[in-house]
Design goal:
The chain is of the alpha/beta class. The chain is built from 19 helices and ten strands. The protein has two domains: about 230 residues, Periplasmic binding protein-like II (D-Maltodextrin-Binding Protein, domain 2, 3-Layer(aba) Sandwich), CATH 3.40.190; about 200 residues, Periplasmic binding protein-like II (D-Maltodextrin-Binding Protein, domain 2, 3-Layer(aba) Sandwich). Strands 1, 2, 3, 4, 5, 6, 7, 8, 9 and 10 form a ten-stranded mixed β-sheet that branches. Strand 2, helix 3 and strand 3 form a beta-alpha-beta unit.
């Protein structure tokens, strides 16, 4: 999803991450025309809330979007609303879990869709920019307003990525790594939600005594535990300064010598040595670990906000998802939310750029942000209070964390593919006790050193 969008440096690692994070998806027919529906109240409002001076939209307009852990309910709704607001526009949807792979030949041939959602395997923003496939939105975005008249840049929680000072894609989805648990189970057992690492160890002792594994992770995809546990722990140990992570991602060898990395790794060692990590973790994938979590074989699981939507068919009726961005901060320390984003862009060779820009203005509204949270199960990148929306409670919880002054919100950080793979392999070895934290650092820095040559 989401998984996130992921890599600005490690494309291969990103492909694996997104494919795993969005493992379950409902297939959507490729390149199918948008269904025509009667105008909804939202659509009627949108039709009258077009930007000043906007011209009537006509012609063909094609949208490419990946269907993964966030599903496609929001896409169906927003496209139907946009169609109702622009009845003379012929909208075509190119969508599905394999759409990026299916559309790749068209991008290469210079016949892309007009608008693209950059998420899922086979689609990487940095590579698309390098290949000259995306429209330069820098000048347009400076003053671009949404359909409500609000300046888009002012609404964004996380600003667009820049490539040599230029903007080509805009983050719409704001996800966060973190720790899930079942609020209903905790209430029934009288267990307290942990506020810090000390609390986490204490409640995990109680959970283990009750015959339940405190913690399970996805051993086949260790970036889950890295993103949800290790990276927040490193930030906390570095006085809540996430620049260390950014320097690590930039292959700065001096950054890798920071004692904060060893302190972060020690949190995983403590979980391991106390026997809190389910021994099944090392050999299972994301859906298997998520299934065991849903069956209450395990109390906590590190994951991204797509988990509930991805496992929707298997969630017990009584299950109430609780979400905490981090559990590795010391007593009194700030919560650390390690975020990821998915972005929207316009093809450089789009045939209907007017429609693509109008759609961009349409989706970046507070109404669509609220609907996204409700229908996809993840917060959007648009600032705003969604407490009164119909979004799932865990999404509201995540949104509160992400907007709280007591949370350190870490912008999306991506590592080179080889470095990311080295970290994943080393973390697995650390969780089963075959290496020590110092060996973890050496393994990874050896790879970083090669990247520098």
């Amino acid at each position: 999803m989401n998984m996130k969008k992921w890599s600005t440096m490690g494309l291969a690692a990103s492909m694996v991450l997104v494919a795993a994070g969005c493992g379950k998806a409902t297939p959507t027919e490729t390149t199918k025309p948008a269904a025509t529906t009667a105008p909804t109240a939202a659509a009627t409002t949108a039709a009258t809330a077009t930007p000043t001076g906007a011209k009537k939209l006509t012609g063909d307009f094609e949208i490419q979007y990946f269907v993964g852990g966030y599903g496609d309910k929001w896409w169906k709704k927003v496209i139907a609303d946009f169609q109702a607001a622009n009845p003379d526009l012929k909208i075509k949807e190119s969508a599905g879990p394999k759409i990026n792979e299916q559309m790749k030949p068209r991008w290469i041939a210079g016949n892309p869709p007009d608008f693209v959602y950059i998420d899922g395997p086979e689609l990487f923003d940095r590579q698309m920019v390098t290949d000259g496939q995306l429209e330069d939105l820098t000048d347009w975005l400076k003053d671009a307003k949404n359909v409500d008249g609000d300046k888009i840049l002012d609404l964004l929680a996380q600003q667009p990525p820049q490539y040599d000072g230029k903007i080509y894609n805009i983050p719409f989805v704001m996800s966060s790594w973190g720790i899930f648990y079942d609020k209903a189970l905790f209430k029934d057992k009288g267990w307290a939600e942990p506020k810090d690492f000390e609390d986490f160890l204490k409640v995990s002792d109680t959970i283990k005594a009750a015959g339940i594994n405190p913690f399970i992770h996805t051993g086949k995809y260790p970036y889950y535990i890295n993103g949800s546990v290790l990276f927040p722990a490193i930030v906390s140990a570095n006085n809540n300064d996430y620049k260390l992570l950014q320097d690590m991602a930039a292959n700065n060898l001096d950054a890798w010598k920071s004692p904060a990395i060893l302190k972060g790794l020690d949190k995983i060692v403590q979980l391991r040595d106390k026997g809190f990590i389910d021994k099944a973790s090392v050999q299972i994938n994301h859906t298997d670990s998520q299934s065991l979590f849903l069956q209450h074989k395990d109390a906590f699981i590190p994951n991204g906000l797509w988990l509930p939507n991805e496992m929707a068919k298997d969630v017990p009726a009584s299950f109430d998802f609780g979400f905490i961005p981090s559990i590795t901060q010391d007593k009194g320390g700030k919560v650390v939310a390690n975020t990821s984003t998915s972005t929207f862009a316009i093809a450089k060779k789009a045939k209907n750029k007017d429609a693509a820009k109008a759609f961009m203005q349409f989706v970046f509204s507070k109404t669509q942000a609220s609907q996204w949270a409700e229908l996809s199960g993840a917060p959007s990148n648009i600032k705003g209070d969604i407490s009164s929306s119909k979004a799932p409670n865990f999404v509201k919880d995540a949104a509160k964390f992400l907007s709280s002054p007591d949370t350190v919100v870490v912008p999306t950080v991506s590592f080179a593919a080889d470095v990311d793979k080295a970290m994943q392999d080393a973390t697995v070895a650390l969780t089963i006790g075959t290496i020590k934290p110092e060996e973890w650092v050496k393994r990874v820095t050896d790879v970083v050193a090669k990247q520098k040559k």
